[in-house]
Amino acid sequence: MFVTPGADNADDRIDWAWTAMPATHALADDLSGSGLLRGRRVGVSLVLEPKTAALALALRDTGAEVAVFSAVSETDPAVAEALSARGVRVFAPGGAGSAETDADNAAGILDWHPDLLIDDGSHLVRLAHTERRGTLETLRGAAEETTSGVRPLVEMAAEGELRIPVIAVNDARTKGLFDNLHGTGQSCVLAIADLLDPVENPGRTLPRRDVIGAVWLVIGYGPVGQGVARHAAALGAQVLVLERDPVRALAAAHDGYGVVSSIADPEVDTVDVVVSATGVWHTVGLDLLTRVREDTVIAVAGGIDDEIALDDAHAAGWTVRRVEPDLSAWSAPATPAKIVYVLADGGGVNYTAAEGNPIEVMDLSFATQLVALRQLCRDGLEPGLHPIDTAAEAEVAALVLEQRMGRTAVDIPTDPGRVGGAAQHWSTHRYRSESSV
């Protein structure tokens, strides 16, 4: 369970978030005017902190009935309590009537029978397709927030097992280019820096880990990994990248980072901080946990369950000692004196041990979620995984440009009816003879 700053003023923090999400509010106002969500039940499964609470309240103002679910490690209980007091049903610690376990709360929001669902990790969508299939009788569609959630949905769709339409919000440009790259990159690096800062944590036995001069190994060079590398380097870290896709590995090299091809590379012996940014199970396996040098710090950016193979470490007899709430010391039975530190128990460090992503990028993401809900209500999509409408992406981006900068997108003169968007017919080219004019 994490607590955002000012835990005794949850209402104030929700109100502040409410005022700092203009794009979300503008699109919620449009949905309210259209009546598309009026009377519908909308379930929200996201990290529960002030920004998510503001989204839930915006959805409620569209005329929808709203319920929120969040796992215990991803819930600020003061925010959950404050949101519950404002009339939103909360299936999370701190919510009125919350169940004792995450599994019971997850089942509870599905048994509430939402019409629409905003999901994180596609956990609730998958639960509805397995142990809570009765939910599918009323569930009209869902919008998926994360990379790690889209991946299993692709598999479900390929196997013909996805029974509802799901919009891959994560793949929208207004989400991935900002939330993943800038938001998660920044929030993860700052969370790690804060947790390792001796000024913030006086008396800690952990060796000093300033970002400047430290060697960071970033595993995965998708948008999240790119963001982590960029922000760590900006604070003075020496960044190494381990990426299995050779094109992305080459991109990392062109971006100025060192590239290692495997954990056996000698550069891995110099690493101070390891960040997994893949969203892939067991990215950090026992081999890497054993290989890194003493006092190495390991964290997950974004992340899924068991992205660090701590389950294998337990099974192999590793010992663990809680140093602080978000810092644990691990040692292998063969080398009990060698300590490896794990942040946030291997959970996504930015949302389980810090404040989550900056509100500016979350405003973009939540605005994109709202246009996804609009698309689900309006377009009559077939079961399967769908991209967000490109016109809706442009709508969200133009709205944010205008609100934040007082500007609109440049109007490039093209024929909107021409396939490919070229300004002239394809037969017009530089070597065209005068006789053909």
TrEMBL record:
Cofactor: NAD(+)
Segments for region (Disordered): 417-437
CC annotations in GO: cytosol
Top-rank lineage group of the source organism: Bacteria
Entry keyword rRNA-binding: no
NCBIfam families per UniProt: PRK05476.2-3 (NF004005)
Name this protein carries in UniProt: Adenosylhomocysteinase
Source species: Mycetocola lacteus
